[in-house]
Specification:
Distance between the termini: 62 Å
CATH architecture of one domain: Alpha-Beta Complex
Low-confidence stretches: none
Shape: globular
CATH superfamily of one domain: Valyl/Leucyl/Isoleucyl-tRNA synthetase, editing domain
CATH class of one domain: Alpha Beta
Largest sheet: 7 strands, mixed
Number of strands: 33
Structural class: alpha+beta
RNA sequence: GCCCAGGUGGCGGAACUGGUAGACGCGUUGGACUUAAAAUCCAAUGGCCAUACGAUGGCUGUGCGGGUUCAAGUCCCGCCCUGGGUACCA
């Protein structure tokens, strides 16, 4: 019987489901291993061949760990809230829940065909109220906690209230917004509303006026990671900066821990680097400047306090409150005009326009903290409101941007570090030069001067050491429908959390999914969107990353209605041992879920500080596009190698009607009506298409659907071919042409177990030495490659084994059955079929992975390459335990050596045992 | 601009701590089997050159230019290119 993959795959998928083979439970007798994929957003387009790449890799690893005796948790679910379903709903009126549900069903069907070892009992979707109950729950917890910098931990807000009532806020060191000092007495005399207002400054989930990214086209604000190059990541719509009252999560409180936690993680260096840059920790000083003729002061942040004596002017961000306060009346009109222009520009315009220097003098001066020299205060858009204090001290001699600004407005440039060239020409930013013209820090190098001047600033109360982060708090409100409602109501204008017993607060029905006439979010359309007592509920919903921030915890205990995860389940599964997903989540999901997890850790709900111990980024599968070349102004197409003789337009052609770059002309004529009468100029009777590597996309006609591949070759072939394509973490183009190789391999493998008549036959004869050697070296290699996630080379090794065993005519049970177990993680269907054909009654999924024995790998001889002056000339088989003297004698007297020795005595003889022999002449 | 990856045949990709470059697979060419096709199997396959033919020999070759070494795809220096991150972050 031949290899009938359709039959086999269907049969065993059914068996696995019927027998609940992949169902897992907490089992204290077994070590746990948690393998997780980044769960997909179920889009309307379904899966293409690039999506399962990571799932296949993680599935192979999960199966491998299971065969090694681990209790493996390997779940799958859906990140089901999101913009595409809602945009579609706005266009069609179709409820996003309906389209989402349809898409999920399609995903599930596609995934099921590939033969994953998912425990579908644990399937979850973020839009399910039973799930988002816990998203809302976590939000309330964040609302009810503040961050204590002294303990480096989130603590209940009630504690903070107690402290305020006892001693005011003077001794609190919290991650908070700027709060003025108050005493216990003042606190106790405040109204409820005033107290609530103060507490907002401390809460980890807080409502505040903040500068947000407003996207008009999507009708919502976006977080920093959802904006790139000044446009929204989803949809590419323009984004502007705007001040709005919005919910935020105080991610910055955890900046240091997010940074330091990276050290212990097994993530790729580049991913860690992206997170480090995103967090952007920099150490420097905060320095206080006094405004001339006023008692007012303001702070600036600088990483170069050593250049303090080189300050010649100050610059404020246009959006800064200080700009308004410090502008003198004579300069009011001009500054206002400038600020108006700067702030109305979109982010995109601002970015594309970074070269042009612009600014305005406020008319006011600040005093140098040490010299008392008056320094003009300017306003310019090169200073950002979001970083540091929104104000800088400008040192044009040693900062490129300040230099450009000074040159443009003809402001003085005063060098204080030795070693640069002409200070008028170029800013010199090295830390190695000697400090000059700087009083008490003269003579130090710039690097040494930094702690010295900070010491002095602190002594005189003029400033202090300061660590600054680029990371911003996460804006958590979206003015959209298809997301989690906030469990928040408003009383007297202040937000209060719903009682947890009221959760989940379910998404209400609305008559349309767009904003109201007066610009309020879609939830404002809901009838009775208020509490039982009649207090209005929050109208925004949560962003996409809300639901994905703790889903890995929910998978541990997905049906628990009492808690996000039970203590028992959490203690057992702990955290994710292996996480597989795309690098595009580096600054979003992977920051937020680490933050979320650390918060839950602080409040004692989870037992691990980091959620994802090891992480593998799978590369993108690119599309391999084919092109035809139409001669301009005709309906004539010319084959690839002849196209240069004509004036042609390259056109994408559906890769599904091209085989090995040869166009199926009949299919092409039928493909699009306008090509019906197309004519062709052929080469060798064929039409050869051009090739290009692009991203896989419908519009480029290069999408390969896994369903089609499975239909033609089977799931095992698809799984193996995706892995065989190359290392998992590299991007590579999909080219269906190569798939024959692994398909042939599986058939060849199958044939080893069958005789000529197709009868399953294995022999119990003792295997020969060469057979044992093939088996054991393959086990060794595949095991090493599994650990190293080098699945492409593991597959090559098994191909080599099958080639060798085929030519030996091996059909020994002792060889083939271990080899089968080795193959099973990669190709589980064929594994299960042959396992059962051999008479086993239980699933191969729990069969142990074979071990190799060193004794079969030992060699008695080694074939040495013999090189002369580093060039390999001939090979020589020698015993492995031979001495150098003996080798020397044999080599130098070898007849083939004479030609290279040329009667000369060798200068040097190099012998590296079991590696190489090199003779230097 | 800065930071991080990476550049190896016609293609996807191998090559452990420097030690036979091109494993494995695709494609291509030739052959066997077949009435034929499919399937299967065998052989060749980086480039260039020489040669009497065969299982012959040489030169050259891992983005480019230098260097270290008995030996460099691998290490060092200086460039170029591709991909990703970031974008006035003080």
């Amino acid at each position: 019987m031949e290899y009938r993959f359709h039959e086999i795959e269907k049969k065993w998928q059914q068996y696995w489901e019927d027998q609940q083979i992949y169902k897992v439970e907490v089992d204290p007798d077994k070590p746990k291993y948690y393998v997780l994929d980044m769960f997909p957003y179920p889009s309307g387009a379904g899966l293409h061949v690039g999506h399962p790449l990571g799932y296949i890799a993680s599935d192979i690893f999960a199966r491998y760990k299971r065969m090694e005796g681990y209790n493996v948790l390997h779940p799958m679910g859906y990140d089901a809230f999101g913009l595409p379903a809602e945009q579609y709903a706005i266009q069609t009126g179709q409820h996003p829940a309906t389209t989402t549900d349809e898409n999920i069903r399609r995903y599930r069907a596609q995934l099921s065909q590939i033969g994953f070892s998912f425990d579908w009992n644990r399937e979850l979707r973020t839009c399910d109220p039973k799930y988002y109950k816990w998203t809302q729950w976590a939000f309330i917890e964040m609302f009810e906690h503040w961050y204590d910098n002294k303990r480096d931990q989130a603590r209940p807000i009630q504690e903070l209230k107690d402290i305020f009532a006892r001693e005011g806020n003077a001794h609190i060191d919290a991650a908070s917004d700027e709060v003025s000092l108050f005493s216990a007495e003042q606190w106790n005399n405040m109204s409820e509303k005033q107290q609530q207002q103060i507490l907002q400054n401390y809460r980890i989930a807080y409502l505040a006026d903040s500068m947000v990214n407003w996207c008009e086209a999507l009708g919502t604000v976006l977080a920093n990671d959802e904006v790139k190059d000044g446009v929204s990541v989803r949809g590419g719509h323009p984004v502007v900066q705007k001040t709005m009252k919005q919910w935020s999560l105080r991610v910055t409180a955890y900046a240091d821990r997010l940074l330091e936690g990276l050290e212990q993680l097994e993530w790729s260096e580049s991913l860690k680097e992206i997170q480090r840059n995103w967090i952007g920790r920099s150490r420097g000083a905060e320095i206080r400047f006094q405004v001339q003729g006023s008692s007012q002061t303001f702070d600036v942040f600088t990483t170069r306090p050593d250049t303090l004596f080189g300050v010649t002017f100050m610059v404020l961000a246009p959006e800064s409150e200080l700009t308004r306060q410090l502008t003198t009346s004579e300069h009011q009109d001009r500054v206002e005009a400038y600020v108006g222009k700067a702030t109305s520009r979109s982010e995109r315009e601002r970015i594309t326009d970074t070269q042009r220097v612009s600014g305005e003098f406020t008319g006011n001066y600040a005093l140098h903290p040490f010299t008392g020299e008056p320094l003009p205060i300017w306003v310019s858009d090169y200073v950002l409101i979001g970083y540091g204090t929104g104000a800088i001290m400008a040192v044009p001699a040693h900062d490129e941007r300040d230099h450009e600004f000074a040159r443009h407005f003809d402001l003085p440039i005063r060098p204080v570090i030795e070693g640069g060239g002409d200070p008028m020409e170029k800013a010199y930013d090295s830390l190695d030069g000697k400090v000059i013209n700087s009083r008490f820090i003269n003579g130090y190098t710039a690097r040494e001067a930094i702690p010295e001047i900070i010491k002095e600033l602190e002594k005189q109360g003029l400033g202090k050491e300061k660590v600054n982060y680029r990371l911003r708090d996460a804006i958590f409100s979206r003015q959209r429908y298809w997301g989690e409602p906030f469990p928040i109501y408003f009383k007297n204008g202040m937000p209060y959390p719903l009682d947890k017993s009221k959760l989940p607060l379910e998404l209400p029905e609305v008559d349309a999914f767009k904003p109201t006439q007066d610009g309020r979010p879609p939830l404002a359309r809901a009838k009775n969107w208020q509490t039982e007592e009649g207090y209005p509920l929050e109208e925004s919903t949560m962003p996409g990353f809300a639901g994905s921030s703790a889903y890995y915890l929910r998978f541990m205990d997905p049906h628990n209605n009492q808690a996000l995860v039970s203590e028992q389940a959490n203690q057992y599964w702990r955290n994710v041992d292996l996480y597989v997903g795309g690098i595009e989540h580096a600054t979003g999901h992977l920051i937020y879920s680490r933050f979320w997890n650390k918060f839950l850790y602080d409040i004692g709900w989870v037992c691990e500080d980091e959620p994802f111990k090891k992480l593998i980024n799978q590369g993108m599968i690119q599309g391999r596009s084919n092109f035809v070349y139409r001669i301009k102004g005709t309906n004539q197409f010319v084959s690839y190698n002849l196209k240069d003789d004509y004036d042609v337009t390259p056109l994408h052609v559906d890769v599904n009607i091209v085989d090995n770059d040869v166009l199926d002309i009949e299919a092409f004529r039928k493909w699009i009506p306008e090509y019906q009468d197309a004519e062709f100029i052929l080469e060798d009777g064929k039409y050869i298409c051009g090739v290009g590597i692009e991203k896989m996309s419908k519009s480029l006609y290069n999408v390969i659907n896994p369903d089609d591949i499975i239909q033609k070759y089977g799931a095992d072939t698809l799984r193996m071919y995706e892995m065989f394509l190359g290392p998992i973490d590299m991007s590579k183009p999909w080219d269906t042409n190569g798939i024959d190789g692994v398909y042939k391999f599986l058939r060849k493998f199958w044939r080893l177990f069958h005789d000529r008549q197709g009868q399953f036959t294995l022999s119990d004869d003792e295997p020969g030495e060469d057979e044992m050697k093939t088996l054991h070296k393959t086990i060794k290699k595949v095991r090493e490659d599994l650990e190293a996630f080098s699945f492409n080379t593991a597959i090559s090794a098994m191909m080599i084994a099958v080639n060798e065993l085929s030519s030996m005519g091996c059909n020994r049970r002792q060889i083939l059955m271990p080899l089968l177990r080795l193959l099973t993680p990669f190709a589980p269907h064929i594994g299960e079929e042959l396992w059962h054909r051999d008479g086993n009654q239980t699933s191969v999924v729990d069969a142990p992975l074979p071990d190799y024995q060193e004794k079969y790998l030992q060699e008695e001889t080694f074939t040495y390459p013999v090189a002369f002056n580093g060039k390999m000339r001939f090979k020589l088989e020698l015993p492995v335990d031979i001495t150098e003297e003996k080798v020397r004698e044999i080599v130098l007297n070898h007849e083939k050596a004479q030609k290279w020795l040329n009667d000369k005595t060798p200068k040097k003889f190099i012998f590296v045992p079991n590696k190489i022999i090199n003779v230097v002449v």
